[in-house]
Amino acid sequence: MTPVAKTELLMSLPSDQDASGRTFDETEIAYVTEVLKSGTLTTTKGKFGKMLEQKFAEKLGAKFAYACTSGSAAIHIAVAAINPEPGDEIITTSITDMGALTPLMYRGVVPVFAEVDPKTLNVTAETIEKKISERTKAIIVTHLFGNPCEMGPIMELAREKGIPVIEDSAQTFLAKKGDAFAGTIGDIGCFSLQQGKHMTTGEGGMVVTNDEKLARKMFLYINKAWGYGDANPDHYFMALNYRMSELQAAVALGQLEKLETCVANRQNTAALLTELLQGIDGIETPVIAPDATHTYWKYCLSVDDSKIEGGSVGMAQLLKEKNIFSAPRYIVKPAFMCQVFQEKNTLGTSQFPFNLAREGAVDYEMENYPLTAKALHDVLVLPWNEKYTEEHVRYIADNVRIAASRLRK
Predict the structure, then answer these.
(1) How far apart are CA 320 and CA 97, in angstroms?
(2) CB-count burial class (<10 Å; 0-12, 13-18, 19+) for 179
(3) What is the pLDDT of residues 273-323, one digit of tens each?
(4) Which residue among 35, 203, 225, 279 is the one 20 to 30 A from 162 at the CA level?
């Protein structure tokens, strides 16, 4: 059996912010070199963008996949395909990145926030149902940290109500719910290729769907609504340029070829950490549905501050002393508590689209979200990437145990 790491020594963990925690090698270098030598850096003329889209769709078992500039762009493209009217509502999660929310407002949509399960930090069919109104145009489910939402009940509810579902799978590459990959269960799946994701181009995104009509709309929205390949192309409606470059596509293709190995490495080391952390009073490891696979964008602990002095914040402070830079409470506060929502700072002084909201839709106060408050209060987000080894995991586990012991009430 491998000996326990020596916690008295400081260890530097691989970081997904630099080469120590990333999988770049000669593959990406060769692909990027080929692009540069060709002189064709636009995906409208090059081959790498098309290859990426084809292979990404094949990997997920989706009919259509399109590359774009970011995860935020992916959300914007998905919402544009749904084509809401100004003042319509889209239900989303109370715990998400601002990049998944501003696209809604740019499309004239009022974000309506659903509560979360305090253990998984994911929305549920029950929390979504409470927010459905006659103005609900779509539901966005965010699979946080690599852990899929309970999609069965969510899809049953959505189909019953006739509401399309967009999956924000930015953190959930190759995670499965049953036999299906996250991102392919709803109507549209959105992925991010940002620096710290399972596969990265620094910034970038992907959208997938099995619906031909939605695919057509997304393709057009990425391309300024210009009908590339049409007999008589035109700019059919108002849209942006969200095209990925060939350079990014070349890197993404190299990353895609390693994705299964990357995910497997994350899962194997996470399984070891879960095993090593069993039995620590006041510390809970990730909760995963029996029919789901977790792909660990990050590894999250739930810390009970009735047993651990200072809770997640106290744990984070002690772990930082050992070069384990965790994030207590994840985003600290829900996005709807940020200034842009609290003061409705959108387009000029119009407060658009909030000026079109129905009464009761804009309930952006913490007192309305006790489950969200509980989830953020307890969560401690540990850094994670595919370059972790057993030694790294044992080092983290030992120091979590030591910190919990030191903070025991």
Answers:
(1) 24
(2) exposed
(3) 999 999 999 999 999 998 999 999 999 999 999 999 999 999 999 999 999
(4) 225
Strands (E), 304-404: 327-328, 379-382
Residue 15 falls inside a structural domain: no
Domain that holds residue 50: 26-257
Query: In the prediction, which pLDDT does 409 show?
Result: 86
Model-level pTM?
A: 0.96
Are 225 and 265 members of one domain? Answer: no
Instruction: Tell me whether strands 165-168 and 136-142 are parallel, antiparallel or unpaired.
Output: parallel
Q: Please spell the DSSP secondary structure of 208-262, one letter per residue.
A: EES-HHHHHHHHHHHBTTB-TT-SS--B-S---B-PPBHHHHHHHHHHHTTHHHH
Within 8 A by CB and 6+ apart from 116, the residues are: 93, 94, 95, 122, 123, 124, 127, 371, 372, 375
Looking at the structure, do residues 216 and 278 belong to the same domain, yes or no?
A: no
Q: Could you tell me which residues are beta bridge partners of residue 301?
A: 380
For the chain, give the number of residues: 409
Same domain, 86 and 124: yes
Q: What share of residues in the chain are helix, strand, coil (percent, to 5)?
A: 40, 15, 45
Task: Say whether both 246 and 272 belong to one domain.
Answer: no
Residues 203 and 300 in one domain: no
Query: Do 70 and 192 contact (CB within 8 A), yes or no?
Result: yes
Radius of gyration of the chain (CA): 22
Same domain, 249 and 103: yes
- Where is the domain boundary, 206, 231, 257? 257
- Taking only the tens place, the pLDDT of each residue in 345-372 is 999 999 999 999 999 999 999 999 999 9
Residue 317 belongs to domain with CATH number? 3.90.1150.10
Tens of pLDDT, residues 132-163? 999 999 999 999 999 999 999 999 999 999 99
The single residue listed with the structure tokens 């987000």 is: 381
What is the total count of domains within the chain?
2
CA 33 to chain centre: 30
